[in-house]
Amino acid sequence: MLKKLSIILIFFAVVTQQQQQERNLIDGIINLLETGNRQYNVFEPRDMPTNQLRASYDFIVVGAGTAGCVLANRLSENPDWNVLLIEAGNSENYMFDMPILANYLQFIETNWKYKTEPSKKFCMGMDNGQCNWPRGKVIGGSSVLNYMIYTRGNRRDYDHWSAMGNSGWSFEDVLPYFKKVENFSIPAYQDSPYHSQEGHLGVSYAPFKTKIADAIIEASQQNGFDYVDYNGAKQVGVSRLQVSLRDGVRESSSRAYLHPIRDRPNLHVKKQAMVSKILIDPNTKQTVGVEFVRDNVPYRVKASKEVILSGGAINSPQLLMLSGVGPKKHLTKMGLPVISNLKVGHNLMDHIALGGLTFIVNNTFKSLRTDKIITTENLKLYFNEHKGPMTIPGGCEVLIFQDLENPTDKDGYPDIEILFQGGSIVSDPVLRKDFGITDEIYDAVYKPIQDEETFMAFPMLLRPKSRGRIMLKSPSYQHKPYIFPNYFAEQDDIDTIIKGVRLILNITSQPALQKIGAKLHAIPIPQCAHLGFGTDPYFECMARHFTFTIYHQSGTCKMGPRSDKRAVVDPRLRVYGVKGLRVVDASVIPEIPAAHTNAPTFMIAEKGSDMIKQDWGYMQ
Fold first, then answer.
1. Is the domain of 340 the same as that of 475?
2. Active site residue 596
3. pTM of the prediction?
4. Residue 36 pLDDT > 90, yes or no?
5. Contacting residues for 117 by C-beta, under 8 A, at least 6 apart
6. Pfam families, per this entry (predicted)?
7. How many domains does the chain have?
8. Which is the catalytic residue, given 200, 268, 386, 596?
9. Catalytic member of 200, 268, 386, 552
């Protein structure tokens, strides 16, 4: 281990000395991530050789992401059940654990690298009018790629799920499962009835924060916001981020739920295996197993009890449709048999923000610039003590929840989140590539300030009204599906984001941020300049150009009662019209909560695991 750390330190020292050559920095970090990814992770369950797999398992879990890792852990608690977890990607590695490098993980083989279909209504400032939609293709799934932000949402979200006909999903019902997930270590809230220290997932503050973050919090309080535990009794207010870190290190679902059970004999894990089809008897509608492909060779494995899809909001609906479960008209057009006619792929939701809203500060207040923080000293601090700026998740530091419709209600139902980063698009050469911003716009708008100290604020739409759709591109599992997010189909979504921009401008005008010289960067996007910088029409144009996903795709296998014509699964997450098949992941979300969706996905998987155990007569 010491030799490995020495190599990393020497490597980064060399790269940092060459920081004037931007490409060297990017290529160097990505190369190190890819090299590390090829190393076997001894802390995970091993990749079971194909010839050692059983012919049949009690349960087959498809997808080892956030939900899949939870399910594999909880179902294999019964020593009499055999569980197979299948993942298209490979293992994590030690480099993925470094929180500051979150934005680099989108450029390696751990990312499915999805893109939305081109549009002239959103993502217009991105290459080819397409937004990048990174999704985890790795043991741990998107919890390996994400920014580790841990927010549950509002109690009204889950009470609404229940009111929609999803019995058992009220806030009172789901709170025990949120608590079951977390090992909560923020001292100020240790005795809260909303938290637990008994769960698998570490939840904490990052060990480091910038002085810019301190100023943002103080300015927010000057603007009337209370400092809150937004995962507690009330959500409205300002806070440092609660994040899925343990001792300054990323806590993915794999680290939290698979590493502790790596030697459990009744759990088999098959990596780098792509499930191409769910095997369903067309006459009895009984699920009998799955077909997967490894090294271009197809294999079939049976499931005696259930197949459980945990592929996420893109892969789960795609696999259902490839297997004959989906909209009859669409499947027929694809030449696929229809086993159950359901609205699979509909109800696509996501959280989006107006991106690129940048503020310049005095040079004496240091922002999170990659060329300044990736140093030998900071790397030693991280590897030896798990402290320092390397522990900040992708540069994200502070958030605010606000109910714009009822701004004086301290217990409101937030419709906007303001997410602050201790740097901006100019702070790291990869950030603009993460989102796919065109070189033309970057050079015109941001290149003039690339040597400045800056921070960025995202007004994030929490309760979008617009809905999109996932559709098959072909009847082959090898072809990625069409993604139509349909952002801004409802004008209310644009209007809410613009109100969020105004809130940001109010906060940044407060004394604490004025003291450090915070000033809105005012070079307009060329395509929007004719509308007048700073006007509502300008910010609408900016939102349509810089439509930044916050990576919360959900809803495409909607949970609902049988009376809901758009429901794909029932409130126990069983697929309608098919026996022995469930979906347990973010795709079942009926209406997206006012939350970053990783925490709700953990909760859904914990609750789903108990439902499965109950239905098969096993409860500890």
1. no
2. yes
3. 0.95
4. no
5. 130, 482, 483, 484
6. GMC_oxred_C, GMC_oxred_N
7. 2
8. 596
9. 552
